[in-house]
Amino acid sequence: MKSIDKNLSDIFDIDPITPTNVIEVKETAVVEIKDSTIEDDVEFARQNIKKLINKGGTAFDNLLLVANESEQPRAYEVVATLIKNLSDLNKDLLELQKRKKDLQGSDDKKQSGNVNVDKAVFVGSTTELVKFLKNNK
What we know:
By secondary structure, this protein is mostly helical. It has a domain at 34-112: Helix Hairpins (Orthogonal Bundle). Helices cover 68% and strands 0% of the residues. The protein contains four helices and no strands. The protein has helices at 3-12, 38-70, 73-111, 126-136. Helix 2 runs antiparallel to helix 3. The longest helix has 39 residues, at 73-111.
């Protein structure tokens, strides 16, 4: 128990209040950034956005408790700002998927420049085909 809680409990002659909500703090590892592919970068960004959304959800719950207890307009304004930021993060997560598909699509287009044709269909008459074959020899 904190000394200030004990002092206030002694002054007002009441039992100390034990906190019901405990904020959980997890240690994060340092991530080493090195040369990577598009998929690695997208996955890294995706994991970061997901972590921010999860931590934002915890922060939202705690801020909502503070706003309800204090009934201050500024506290509700902070909660509203956090809601907007969390919704933007969710939109960013979806946008990231779209960008990944666009980037992978552009890579596929670059790789498809050299195409081997196994079977070709000639559209025309037989005389045109004979002329075409004679010209190629």
